[in-house]
Amino acid sequence: xxHRDEDLTVGEMLRRHGISRRGFIKFCTAAASAMALPPLMxxxxxxxxxxxxxxxxxxxxxxxxxxxxxxxxxxxxxxIESLIFNVISLDYNDTLMAAAGEAAEAARTQAIHDxxxxxxxxxxxxxxxxxxxxYCMAGGKSAVDILGEAAKGAAAIVCVGTCAAFGGxxxxxxxxxxxxxxxxxxxxxxxxxxxGCPPIPEVITGTLLQFVSTGKVPxxxxxxxxxxxxxxxxxxxxxxxxxxxxxxxxxxFDDEGARNGWCLYELGCKGPTTxxxxxxxxxxxxxxxxxxxxxxCIGCAExxxxxxxxxxxxxxxxxxxxxxxxxxxxxxRLAGVAAATGVAIGAASAAVSRIRQHRQEQQAADxxxxxx
Amino acid sequence: MSRLAEIPIRIEPGAATGGLGGGVNxxxxxxxxxxxxxxxxxxxxxxxxxxxxxxxxxxxELQRALGEGEVLATLNAEGTSIIHETRVPGVWWVxxxxxxxxxxxxxxxxxxxxxxxxxxxxxxxxxxxxxxxQIATAVAARAx
Lengths: 372, 144
Prior knowledge:
The complex is a heterodimer. Chain A is α/β, with parallel strands linked by helices. Helices cover 39% and strands 10% of the residues of chain A. Chain A has 16 helices and nine strands. Chain A has helices at 10-16, 21-34, 41-50, 67-72, 80-87, 101-114, 143-152, 162-166, 168-171, 201-214, 227-230, 241-246, 256-259, 278-281, 328-340, 345-367; strands at residues 56-61, 89-93, 119-124, 127-128, 137-138, 141-142, 154-160, 179-180, 191-194. Chain B is an alpha+beta fold. A five-stranded antiparallel β-sheet of chain B has the order 1-5-4-3-2. Chain B is elongated and about 70 Å long. Classes of the chains: A alpha/beta, B alpha+beta. The A-B interface holds A 19-23, 25-27, 29-30, 32-33, 36, 38-40, 42-43, 76-77, 79, 82, 237, 239, 241-243, 245-246, 248, 259-261, 280, 285-288, 292, 294 and B 4, 9-12, 15-17, 19-21, 44-48, 50-51, 53, 55, 75, 77-79, 81, 96, 98, 102-107, 109, 115-116, 120, 123.
C-alpha cells in the first residue's frame, strides 16, 4: 500500500480519515443534488471517486478581494474540508496553506513539476497587465508570469469568480490596472468559468468535484460556464416569478408590495438577464438568496455587471446596460475570440481599439447631415 | 438569529404561490411510473426533492400522501440520515443531514432497499478479517 498522501486513492484517503463508504455515498449524493445531476449519480460517483488518485489542485489568487475564497470555505455540500482532505490535494493556496514565503512558492513549483499535465488550476481574480504587470506581484513575479507558468501544465483551468472569468470589478471602467480575465491571457487550455461575485460555494466545489470525478469538462454555455449551474436565469427559477406574471411589482423597498413579497423587477432586479443557480441552490446552506431577502439580483455572474448602470434601474430602463466606453461584454466576446486563436493580451487590446474605432465611425456617420 | 420563517413577510396564498410549487400530483404520478418500472424491470430510481421548486405546503402534502411505512432507519455517517419506507412499498423517503444538522440532500428513492443501507462486499470481507483478528487476540489473551 502506498504511504505518501499524494499516491493514495480517494478511497484509501477516506479509510485513513475514518470515513465510511456510506458517509462518502452521502457526501456524493449531496454533491450530485447540489449539481442538479440525476440523484442516483451520487452512489455511482462515490464508487468512481473511491478508485482514483486524488488530483492535485493549484489555486492562484490575483487581483481579487478574497470574497470568492471566503465563499468557497462556506460550502455545505460538499464542505471544503471534506473536499480538501479527501477528494483533492490542495497543493497551493496562498491564503489557506500553512507555508509562507519561499516555502510556499516552492510548494507551487513542486506541485506543478510533480503533476505536470494533470493538475487542476484554479484562478481567483483578474490579471492586471498595466505597468508591466507590476500591479500584482508575488515572490518577484507578476500575475501574468505566474499564470503563464502554472497554465502550461494544467489539465484544466477553473476561473472562480467574475474577476477571473470576466475581469470583474478591476476590469470596470476605467480599468486602471489594465486587468483582464484568464481567457484573454491563456488560449490553449480547457477553461471553465464559475462566475459570481462571489460564486455560490456549492457551485465552486460542485464544479471541481464534477471535473475530478469524470475527468471531463462539463457542458458549458457561451461564457464557458457549466450549464448545470448556469443553464437558467434567476428569473426562470425565482419563487417570486408568479407575481411578475401577474404584474404585481414592489415599487419601493418598504411599500405594501415589498412586504407582500411581490416581484422586484421595477426596483432593478437583474434576475431576467442573469444566469446563475441562486434561486435553486440558494446561499448559506440553502437558507435564502438576495431576492428572498428582499433585494433584487444585481447580475453579478454576468460579464460587465459593474458597468451596466444602477443596480436599482429597471431592466426596461433604456439607460441600463450602456456605458460610455466599449461594453465589457463586447470586449470579452472579442477577447474570447483572441484567446481561442492563441493570441493574447495584445489582441484583446486591439479589440478594444476596434470597438472604439467602430463607435467613432458610427457616431460620425450619425452626426452627418441627413439628406431629404 | 431569527429563522427565515420568523421574518414577517407575507406571501399571498393561492394561485400565485401554487403556480410553480403545485407539483405534488405530478410527483405522485411520477412515483407510480417509477414503481411500475421497479416492478417490471427491477430498475431503481430516485427523485431529488431539493431540485423541485416546492413550497413547505407542497412538501407537507406530499408527506401526507405517501404516509409512514414499517421501516425506519437511522444512519450515523458524517451526520445523521433518516431513511424510512413510506406507506407505499418500495417508496423510501431519504433525508441526509450533515454534522451540523443541516439538510444536505432529500430524495424519494423508488427501490427495494436504498443502496446506502446495504453492506458492501469489500467492507464485509474487511469486517470478517477484523473479527477474526479480534477473536485471535482474545484467545491469546486468555491463554496468557
